[in-house]
Amino acid sequence: MAQLIADRRDVDFVLYEQLEAEKLCGYARYREFNRKTFDLVVDEARSLAIKEILPTLAPGDREGLAFADGRVRVPECFHRPYKLYREGEWTAVTADPAVGGQGLPHLIAQAVGDYHLGANYAFTLFGWSGFGAGEMIEIFGTPEQREMFLKPMYSGRWGGTMVLTEPNAGSDVGALTTTGRRLEDGTYAISGAKIFITGGEHDLTENIIHPVLARIEEAPAGTKGISLFIVPKIWVNADGSLGGPNDVACTGIEEKMGIHASPTCSLAFGGKGQCRGLLLGEEHKGMKVMFHMMNSARLLVGAIGFTSASAAYLYALDYARQRRQGRDLEKSFDPEAPQVPIIRHPDVRRMLLWMKAHVEGMRSLIYYAARLLDHIRCESDPLQRDYWQGMMDLLTPVIKAYCSDKGFEVCSQAVQVYGGYGYTREYPVEQLLRDVRIAAIYEGTNGIQAMDLLGRKLGAKGGAVFMNLLQEIQRVIARARGLEPLAGLAESLAQAVERLGQTALYLGQTAMSPKLRTAFAHATPFQEVMGDVVMAWMLLWRASVAVPQLERLVGPAAGEERGSKIEGHKQAAFYEGQVQAARYFINSLLPVTMGKMTAILAADSAVVDIPEAAFGG
Ligand SMILES: Cc1cc2nc3c(=O)[nH]c(=O)nc-3n(C[C@H](O)[C@H](O)[C@H](O)COP(=O)(O)OP(=O)(O)OC[C@H]3O[C@@H](n4cnc5c(N)ncnc54)[C@H](O)[C@@H]3O)c2cc1C
Predict the structure, then answer these.
(1) Is 132 near ligand 1, meaning CB less than 6 Å away?
(2) Is the CB of 168 under 6 A from ligand 1?
(3) Which among 351, 260, 371 is positioned nearest to 309, based on CA atoms?
(4) How far away, in angstroms, is 38 Cα from ligand 1 center?
(5) Which of 99, 370, 447, 486 could bridge 107 with an S-S bond, Cβ 3.0-4.6 Å?
């Protein structure tokens, strides 16, 4: 079976043609890089993904995890690739070389993630978590804490986690009851039970560093009173050497629908009264610190949705080219006519183009977000930095929710393309579908993302940030208007952008009125339509890059002559794919989005009005 993760041609298109990655080398921080080094990094990432990580996907799922005596054993096949992953320094590619990173742009790291996450994200999460947790220590920690923790975490020698959830504090983080009590030596005694902690215990690393949210005794209620503590599984001495076990016990792991190789752990802190933690940042201000990791994790979860979709699409495409069933429509009643590959059937092509448009739109969006991070990191003008940060904050819930929802839908379509075989374990798409399902739930459910979008992000700076986003979209519309094949699509997107602006304004105002509950009943549909419009923006942007290239390659040819020129020319076919994907999305899907916006503007309140008893059951 083919080993498929991501289409390298498309990765390169987004990096270099759409987002002009080489321009990043103009920033002092990235001066030493060039296209050659970027290519080398992506080649190496791809090679590790295909040769070492992808082969662990199905065996990791089948073998799963072993739990005994508080210890978790990961699938045997994870050990070799994890060693190679560390040796290749893939654990902290964007971190500063001074603290053990490669100093690469976020945009290039995203292309790396395209392959590593797409190959087996249950595996790649082990490498990411040490870095994600370490970043908080880098930004908010004391110099001593940075010295003690950063290098081992960034090198993947020690793992990391993020420890928020408790049985009665899931979405409602502020309800947590884990405590931190000041000790005379300046450390804190940690006590409490946490659940659902990814990578909370495993045998891949010699230590695991848990950033734990807890409440110091006299702290005010709610999220404002929460502090963040660094709680090592094995105590770390001031000189960085390891001490004894730190009274962190894994009391069990979940049996789940998917990601069978990713341990979801229950952790007991201080069961014997001997768990100690170090305060990270200031007392009572832990949420601010944790939000740094949560925002990164939200982008990561969006990327998980997208990369799962990317692999699923490529498998479905490959299968559709090989599987022969039925005859061409025109020869349906001719028993002598040969069976054709299912990619010839209009309904299968519809599924494939739906998947292609979403996968490619999501790739552009996620890489765009990574480029925003590069601007934020490198830009010296504070006003410009603020502009990009606002855009990032606004897009974060959309990326998390839209890409995880659509990622799941793409995987589901892939199963459909395979027919009955897709439902069996013989092919990889059923696992991709199971594994990706959690993405819409963890890191703040998609419902919580929608509330964040409506309640906080839309109104940021009096709505100016949202208007900036619409202006960015208008730039692409203006460019597409100047390209004859795209002029009609540009008009349609312009109408959708206008309607999105009206819908946002209306919903934002309703959210501040007595009809607040009705507004929030429409928060998720709003998040989805905003995601659709953003997709259309990304796809039109791609098409506007492709059209001049197509004209260069195919010239003024029309009709059949043009068709056969494109069919026989790989590059031309790629660019034509961009135009057709934008055309499909804007002409066939965006009208549905317009309808959904009409429904939101009607602000029907059945969801609010229905008495609880009337739900039946
Ligand atoms: C495999 C897996 C891995 C995980 N990894 C981690 C981890 O590493 N660290 C960690 O801390 N946690 C982790 N979690 C926990 C995860 O983040 C939570 O499950 C998630 O935040 C939802 O919390 P909950 O399960 O308690 O659901 P609930 O909060 O009970 O939510 C149930 C439903 O109610 C909705 N809801 C809840 N409150 C509101 C509200 N105010 N308004 C509107 N709707 C609402 C939710 O959207 C959801 O649909 C993991 C979970 C799983 C399953």
Answers:
(1) no
(2) no
(3) 351
(4) 37
(5) 370
Answer whether residue 434 is part of any domain. no
Q: Whose CA is closest to atom 51 on ligand 1?
A: 196
274 and 230 within one domain: yes
Instruction: Choose the residue to mutate in 163, 196, 290 for probing ligand 1, maximizing ligand atoms within 8 Å of C-beta.
Output: 196
Q: Are residues 454 and 595 in the same domain?
A: yes
The preferred substitution site among 125, 442, 446 for testing ligand 1, maximizing ligand atoms within 8 Å of CB, is 442
- In angstroms, rounded to a whole number, what is the distance separating the alpha carbons of residues 3 and 51? 9
**pLDDT tens digits, one per residue of 498-540:** 999 999 999 999 999 999 999 999 999 999 999 999 999 999 9
576 is catalytic: no
48 in Cβ contact with 123 (< 8 Å): no
Where residue 124 sits, what CATH number does that domain have? 1.10.540.10
State which residues form the domain around 486: 446-609
Alpha-carbon span 579 to 577, nearest angstrom: 5
- Domains identified in the chain, total number: 3
Residue 185, SS3 per DSSP:
coil
Tens of pLDDT along 222-247?
Answer: 888 999 999 999 999 999 999 999 99
Given 236, 254, 285, the domain boundary residue is 285
Half-sphere exposure of 424 (CA within 13 A, CB side): 6
Alpha carbon of 447 to ligand 1 centroid (Å): 10
Catalytic residue selected from 443, 560, 561, 576: 443
- Among 154, 181, 207, the domain boundary falls at 154
Q: Are residues 97 and 201 in the same domain?
A: no
